[in-house]
Specification:
alpha+beta, single chain, 201 residues, two-stranded antiparallel ribbon, eight-stranded mixed sheet, Elongation Factor Tu (Ef-tu), domain 3, 10 strands, elongated
Length: 201
């Protein structure tokens, strides 16, 4: 049973299909388009659109599944309701984007955020309410800085990582520097007068 497509064949009062499952009635379809404006003052003459963010498109659907096609209280009718409920459980567990077509509009990359399944004591049908949200996709873009645009000190080094910083050899230190380091260590250990660290004025 495919869960990648949620298709409503036409508008209100007609059959709907989720994969291979038929919804016997599409009761309502609500499309929500929310935007959020900044709460801070906008500079006069500035772009207003830069201060308004658009939320992802949302869709709310209400429909019904009945057992009336076979028998109202027969085993076949109950089995249809059980299978239909299982499809919604699979949608919930799969957490994958699906496409929705209602006959009035087409929705792509929608993920189910909420599903409420209700049944009354009549027992021959259940009502399902679903909320979907569109997943907004972004593409990662990378670029290379031209060599002539790079700083002089960075030319030929762009992208170079994990470069060794080198080592300091004690033999490379002058006799005066070695003596200063020795005196500082001795002073730290309480041997001789207290001194400042080498290089500190």
């Amino acid at each position: 049973m495919s869960l990648t497509a949620l298709t409503f064949n036409s508008v209100f009062g007609t059959r709907a299909v989720i994969g291979t499952l038929q919804l016997d009635a599409l009761v309502s379809e609500d499309t929500i388009l929310d935007s959020y404006a900044t709460i801070y003052p906008v500079e006069d003459g500035g772009s207003i659109t830069d201060n308004v963010s658009s939320d992802a498109e949302k869709l709310s659907l209400t429909g019904q599944v009945t057992s009336a096609e076979i028998t109202v209280y027969g085993a076949g009718g109950w089995q249809k309701l059980i299978q239909a409920k299982d499809v919604f459980r699979q949608l919930h567990e799969a957490r994958t984007p699906i496409s929705i077509s209602t006959g009035m509009d087409n929705y792509t990359d929608m993920v189910m955020e909420r599903c409420r399944i209700g049944r009354t004591n009549e027992g021959d049908h259940f009502t399902v309410e679903c909320d979907f949200r569109k997943i907004l996709k972004a593409q990662l873009q990378t670029d290379t800085v031209p060599e002539d645009k790079a700083a002089v000190s960075a030319k030929g080094k762009a992208g170079s990582t994990r470069t060794s910083g080198g080592k300091v050899n004690a033999a490379d230190l002058s006799e005066k520097q070695q003596q200063a380091a020795t005196d500082y260590v001795n002073a730290t250990l309480g041997i001789g007068p207290r001194l400042r660290p080498p290089g500190v004025m």
